[in-house]
Amino acid sequence: MKNPRLLTAFTVASLALVATFATTVLLHAAEGPSDAKGPVVLPPEVLALPVEQAILTSPPHVPPPISRKYSARVVINLEVREVVGRLADGVEYTFWTYGGNVPGSFLRIREGDVVEFHLNNHPSSKLPHNIDLHAVTGPGGGAASTFTAPGHSSQFTFQALNPGLFVYHCATAPVPMHIGNGMYGLILVEPKEGLPPVDKEYYVMQGEFYTTGKYGEEGLQSFDMAKAIDERPPYIVFNGSVGSLVGDKAITAKVGETVRLYFGVGGPNITSSFHIIGEIFDKVYPEAGLSLPNRNVQTTLVPSGGATVVEFKVDVPGTFILVDHSLTRAFNKGALGMMKVEGPANRVVYSGKEIDAVYLGAQAEAGSDSSKREAELKSQIADATKANPLIAGLTKEMQVEKGKQVYMGLCFACHQPDGKGLPMAFPPLAGSDYMLADRDRAVRIVLKGLTGPVTVNGATINSVMPPQEAVLTDAQIADVLTYVFNTWGNKGDAFTSSQVKSIRNETH
Amino acid sequence: MNTALFIRLCAIALCSLSGAMLFSTPLTESSATLIPPIKNPESKIENRTVLIPSGAYVPLQRTLKEPAQIPVAAFFLAECPVTNAEFLAFVTANPKWQRSQVSRLFADSSYLENWTSDLVPGPSAPPNAPVVRVSWFAARAYARSIGQRLPTIAEWEFAASAGYTSADGKNDEALNRDLYAWLARPVPAIQADTASAKPNFYGVRGMHGLVWEWVDDFNTAMVTGESRADSGLDRDLFCGAGSVGAKDTTDYAAFMRQALRSSLKANNTTTALGFRCAQNLPDHLSLR
Hints:
The complex is a heterodimer of chains A (about 500) and B (about 290). Chain A is of the alpha/beta class. Chain A has helices spanning about 1-20, 25-30, 45, 175-180, 225-230, 330, 370-385, 390, 395-415, 435, 440-450, 475-485, 495-505; strands at about 50-55, 75-90, 90-100, 105-110, 115-120, 130-135, 150-160, 165-170, 185-190, 200-210, 220, 235-240, 250-255, 260-265, 270-275, 280-285, 295, 300, 305-315, 320-325, 335-340, 450-455, 460-465. Helix content of chain A is about 25%, strand content about 30%.
């Protein structure tokens, strides 16, 4: 390789010297990326390879497997665009993207392919960008060779020497901000022998967003440098937004099919404990090396700037939840997706709920001396509370305000800040016919929790709400219910602590 | 012979030869037809110059051999970036800088592309909005035409380091909020009027939040002063390496300005890149 390069250097140099004295020639060289050396002179055996245009797909889709059994020269055109998009409901963000999506387009090539890579930075971009592909062997992974001003394009060539699933990302300073705004994606280098055939393939990446506003705060959010430096992201999400893989955007499979997920972490900082609730990975290719897989894995660790390939056969129908099993990320920051599996049930593999019975635990037996004394004391407390005008005089507005604090600290994670819940997972409270129909039942559900199917506004949701009786005081429950019954268009009277207390103490 | 070194030597030879051509030929000199400072009757604020007192600029990145601070002598800086109306007056007086006339050596094919025609800025380039899609060569020629020059990186960064209410803007929350909010928005199809930018402590407007701006020595942004086989770009800018040698790795906006400058060639133009002019103090005032 050294001789052709030397030859190129001489050619470029002598051309340039001539050009200095002939302005017309220089005109051709005047536009283009900095430090451009001109196209590489490929050896005849590489030039002889067939040329093909890479197929690019946006997440969660993956280009078809490569069927050819020989190397090719693959041309990849990737466009950088800065676009305003949805980060969560009511929340917008200016994403910096490869191909208009977060994560960027999925690239698929074969071990040994020679890739002619074009990076095009859209004229409307505010900033220069580049790309570091972890599949590239060479300094910077292509970063310096693709450093491109707004409204320009760069080209470089590399050969895919190692098979594997690799992250690519922008490497322009300040890198954490470029990645933190969405500039990452995956490139799959299939091994020469190919990958085992599967029925479905999907593309999911985790990344975090450092917004100035807290989780769910509406409007167009800016990047918060201080939160990024402290690694305190309000959002940790799959495929660039909260709910990108939920409801009708969930990935799908049929019972009996084998699914392969290409899962990567863009970061910029947070490692993922990737897990699918209710599914065991039959195979995990650790760190996406595509050599020997680990088998029967529950949770696999995927580093920032790394990836994994997991495969599993789906045996029973239902909704399976993809999470980062560092669970506040799933519960409070958005790292949650869904896979919906259709097909016949197998009640031997998984029966569903068989029996629901009452269990009293260690409660004192009704009628015992101790429980009589308890009831007596409680009625004394209730009387004292009722007689105290300060407590009785709490206005409904104050309760709504205090209830909002409780709601935004606890309930919003499932029922959402707008009270609309999440389709198929968590029922809405805004305009909920089920909730508004029975005030005592609402108190009971907050206290004792609720498991199993309910029909809310015509939709059936089969989910679990944990009991809050050990978490919230009677007053807090009265406040939060007053808030919920008087917000998002709901109208209702205030709840009282004594009302909550009497339901808390009711026996079955 | 080492190939990289050879290319480097050729490049240096090429630069000095072409540089000599660009700057010493009568062609370039005569382009600076001296015209009086331009008054724009439609402008809400006159683009006056503001005195920036002497101070020191702390470079974002440096090698151990370079000084920690670069002294900045007092100078005059334009209150606002050059507007479309002002640039129109310039290209009217200097036809060789009109869109259809300009040499591709001095401005690439998207030069003034948002203008309707050579002498009509049109609806996408309001008179009081900063001119964008201009090359470094064009910006420099403009400054010379009014007897001024472009500010240096040190001067520009020093003036831009002020907050709204004090000379040190690093902890000015309002400024940082506005700055990152601007960075979070894509380039608008039509730039805002310069008058919309809030003046900083020195009284200059739009250092942050209007457009990026050319500086005279933009292409020195990544030079480390040390000649190694690799270019300064690979070593000092990309990925984690970007923070090596950086004085303050928390100033993301400074990294972005530096990255932008490094990505440019002198004939490049982009949708959000304009400029403003600077001027030395008269000799009898600049006693330092």
